[in-house]
């Protein structure tokens, strides 16, 4: 599992964003298909109400692959300056 992940992380930044966009687009298309076109659509459409925190946790979950490297890069950038100033 780790080999494909490290290979994916080794891609250039634009390729990472394109692959994430494609994954999210596929996920959204799958949810739309399941909700409106599949055999399960009547069952899925019968579900009533979604709790508001569900959307917050989903947004957090999907934003982590993007935010985590940026946060790490920002915190590591300060280490270089501290090492030079010392």
Count of distinct strands: 0
How would you sum up the major sheet?
none
Mean pLDDT: 76
- Give the helix level as a range of percent: over 70%
Class computed from helices, strands and strand pairing: mainly alpha
Distance between the termini: 40 Å
Oligomer state equals single chain
Total DSSP helices: 4
Domain count: the total is 2
Q: What is the radius of gyration computed over CA atoms, rounded to a whole number of angstroms?
A: 19 Å
Low-confidence stretches: none
Query: How much β-strand is present in the residues?
Result: under 5%
Spell the H/E element sequence: HHHH
Taken from the alpha-carbon principal axes, the silhouette is: elongated
Describe the fold and architecture.
- With 86 residues, the chain is mostly helical.
- The protein has 2 domains: 1-48; 52-86.
- Helix content is 83%, strand content 0%.
- The chain is built from 4 helices and no strands.
- The protein has helices at 2-9, 13-36, 41-45, 52-85.
- It is elongated.
- The mean pLDDT is 76.
Please render the helix and strand layout as text.
Elements: H1 2-9, H2 13-36, H3 41-45, H4 52-85
Report a brief summary of the structure.
The protein is mainly α and 86 residues long.
Which key terms come to mind for this protein?
86 residues; 4 helices; elongated
